[in-house]
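SAMPLE LOG
Freezer: B-3
Tube label: C17
Construct: single chain, 75 aa
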Amino acid sequence: MDCLRCGTCCVAPDIKALGKPLRSRCGYLNANGECGQYDDRPAVCRRYRPDEICLLIAAPTIEERVEKYLRLFGL
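STRUCTURE (predicted):
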């Protein structure tokens, strides 16, 4: 599955390699839903692959997608 560029994976989870806490926007995420440091992104981001979860949390706004993601994982 191709990335939907919704930005949820760059906002909802914590990313310890970047010191990014849960629910906070990654500083590298640009307005187009793309990583501004794509070539230098940490391994955890490189390993991430979009899957059916992306479709399960689909919603009109990033806030709604983040809330659905967090509920899905009980966070």
